[in-house]
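[recover] target loaded
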C-alpha cells in the first residue's frame, strides 16, 4: 500500500481530522503503522480519546485502503492526489497548522516553479473593484506571479480570467470537489476547464 492510499483511507474515518492525522503519523512514524496500530497503542497518542479510538477500530474494519484508492483513481483519472507525506505536496501549504492531509489537483501544476499571489474578494463588486482586481491580477501575472484564487463568483473569477488572458497559469482552490457534478459555482465550470487545460 502506498502512503497516499492509507492517508486517504484514514481521512474517511470519523473523528480523524487533519491535525489528528498528522499527530498520528508523527507518533507512529508512518501511515501504515497508524493503520495497523492496536487499541492500546492508539490510546497512548496524546489528544486521542477513547471514543475516537473505538470509532477508529470499528470503522477501519470496513475500509480497504486499496479499494478506496482504486475507486477514486478510476472515477477521476485526470485528478492527482497528494498526501502531506508526498514530496510533491506544496511545501508552503505544510506550514499551515491545519493543512489538509491530502489535496486533489487537476491540470498542469508545479508548486515551486513561480511565486504565488492570492487575490480574493467579494461576490458583489463595484465597477472600480472589477477594474482594480483585473489590473492587479493582470499586472502580477505579467510580472511572473501565479495568481491563486477560489473560483467563486465575483472578484475571484475576475482574477482568474485576468491571469488566464495574460497567458499565465492560475490556480483555483475549491471548497467543493473537483468533480464537475459537485463543483460550485456551476457558472464557473467552463472557466475551471480552461484553467485545468492551461
Amino acid at each position: 500500500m502506498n502512503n497516499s492510499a492509507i492517508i486517504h483511507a484514514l481521512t474517511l474515518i470519523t473523528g480523524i481530522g487533519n491535525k489528528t492525522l498528522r499527530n498520528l503519523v508523527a507518533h507512529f512514524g508512518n501511515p501504515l503503522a497508524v493503520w495497523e496500530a492496536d487499541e492500546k497503542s492508539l490510546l497512548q497518542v496524546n489528544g486521542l480519546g477513547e471514543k475516537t479510538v473505538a470509532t477508529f477500530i470499528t470503522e477501519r474494519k470496513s475500509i480497504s485502503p486499496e479499494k478506496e484508492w482504486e475507486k477514486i483513481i478510476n472515477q477521476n483519472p485526470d485528478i492527482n492526489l497528494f498526501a502531506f507525506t508526498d514530496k510533491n505536496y506544496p511545501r508552503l501549504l505544510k506550514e499551515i497548522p491545519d493543512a489538509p492531509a491530502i489535496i486533489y489537483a487537476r491540470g498542469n501544476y508545479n508548486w515551486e516553479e513561480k511565486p504565488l499571489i492570492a487575490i480574493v474578494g467579494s461576490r458583489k463588486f463595484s465597477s472600480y473593484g472589477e477594474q482594480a482586481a483585473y489590473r492587479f491580477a493582470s499586472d502580477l501575472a505579467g510580472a511572473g506571479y501565479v495568481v491563486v484564487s477560489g473560483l467563486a463568483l465575483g472578484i475571484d473569477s475576475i482574477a482568474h480570467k485576468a491571469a488566464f488572458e495574460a497567458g499565465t497559469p492560475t490556480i483555483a482552490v475549491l471548497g467543493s470537489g473537483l468533480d464537475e457534478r459537485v463543483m460550485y459555482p456551476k457558472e464557473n465550470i467552463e472557466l475551471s476547464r480552461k484553467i485545468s487545460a492551461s
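[recover] notes: The two ends are 33 Å apart (CA to CA).
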